[in-house]
Amino acid sequence: KGNCLDNSPMENFFSLLKQEVYHGQVFHSYEELERTIVTFIDYYNHRRIKRKLDWMSPIDYRKEIQNAA
């Protein structure tokens, strides 16, 4: 059985998605919403730097860790 901390990263991601994408937006089709979410996921993984990841994007941080191993 999991605990409440297991879901923390996803709760954080969805909170950011709501704040940075959904807030104040009106989507006129499911396809428009889907494109917007896919674009945000790409941005989040490849270009959005995070202080706790030593100012790297999640993808760059993972590559750095894998290369160090």
UniProtKB/TrEMBL annotation:
Q: Which InterPro entries match?
A: Integrase_cat-core, RNaseH-like_sf, Transposase_IS3/IS150/IS904
- A Pfam match is rve_2
Q: Which residues form a coiled coil?
A: none
For the biological process aspect of GO, one term held by this record is: DNA integration
Integrase catalytic domain ranges (all copies): 11-63
User: The organism sits in which domain of life?
Assistant: Bacteria
User: What's the protein here called?
Assistant: Integrase core domain-containing protein
Q: What is the native source organism of this protein?
A: Pisciglobus halotolerans
Task: State the organism's lineage.
Answer: Bacteria, Bacillati, Bacillota, Bacilli, Lactobacillales
